[in-house]
Amino acid sequence: MALEAWLMDESDEDQRLPHHRNPKEFVPLSKLEEIGLLYWHLNPQNYENDEQLKKIREERGYNYMVCSLKDLLDLCPGKVQNYEEKLKNFFTEHIHGDEEICYCLEGSGYFDVRDKDDQWIRICIKEGDMIVLPAGIYHRFTLDTSNYVKLMRLFIGEPVWTAYNRPQEDHPARQSYIKNLFENSGVALEAH
Length: 192
Hints:
Blueprint (H helix, E strand, L loop, with lengths): L3 E4 L21 H6 L3 E4 L9 H10 L3 E3 L6 E3 L7 H8 L3 E2 L4 E15 L5 E7 L2 E5 L5 E5 L5 E7 L8 E2 L6 H12 L9
Antiparallel strand pairs: 1-7, 2-8, 3-10, 4-10, 5-11, 6-7, 6-8, 6-9, 6-10
């Protein structure tokens, strides 16, 4: 199963809509790799015993895995207090000082990331998709019209989930990301 991504239109309609341009402009995985995004498709029915997930965690140093049922991000109306406010916060453009690692166990949603030209790329994540956003990349998250997603978060070390809203051009993670992005311009980064 391939990850779907596309360049977004400039519409202010409901953030949960696909926001395709007309005509649609799909973005290949190779372009996502160029901006530092990593992707795997795993078996979410066996995440507790998945050898592929275990291997990824070992290779990338993800030694903290939020995976107890109470710690999974189960995002939908009725399960999250102040649901609309939380969704609005997730959709505010921001960076993190560390990688953001999300594994979709159920449902679906959208991660939007900025490309080299500062255009939005919308990435549709579905059950089994695991993505890694590099530290310092501008991004945001929203649900799609199904209004449901269950995500597992992984971390290197203790969990830190601090969002720094744009602009953050002086943040060390942003400066490092920009430096790596343009030094590796045209060179595909390691991905799966």
